[in-house]
Hints:
Blueprint: H1 6-39, H2 45-76, E1 90-95, E2 98-104, E3 110-113, E4 116-121, H3 126-131, E5 139-142, E6 145-152
Parallel strand pairs: 2-4
Antiparallel strand pairs: 1-2, 1-6, 3-4, 5-6
Amino acid sequence: MKQPDKNEVILAVKNRILSMLNTVTESLDSERNAIQQETKSSAGDKYETQREMLQADIRRSEAQLEETKNHLEIIEHLYDFHGTIMLGTVVHLEQGSQKLIVFVGPAVGDIEVQRIKLKTISAASPFGHLLMGKHKGETISFNQKSFKIVDCY
């Protein structure tokens, strides 16, 4: 199985996080602008309901912004690999004839590096939790399926 370059994987994850950060920031700015415009609108029950809905959107976006900033913090402080799977590790797995490459770090969806698809998983996810601390050659079981760790770096 071809190995994607780890630095390129980290860069792809970082770029995805920065894109997410930009999207959330734009959304938050838009929501804050909308609430400012709503303040200039007419008063009444409809006004209060609309304002509360906008406030809820702002709170959701602020939580997303905080989570995305935490992802960026994680990706910028990854550790060097020392043989044990931890944050920042690229893991090659086999489940029967299926091959899977995952990056343990911020879960930001699937990424592609050098035309190779990788899944990003959080160390806190059930699957990520099983991988943490394992080594090349070990096997983990998840949902009644066995996954062999073929390589990790």
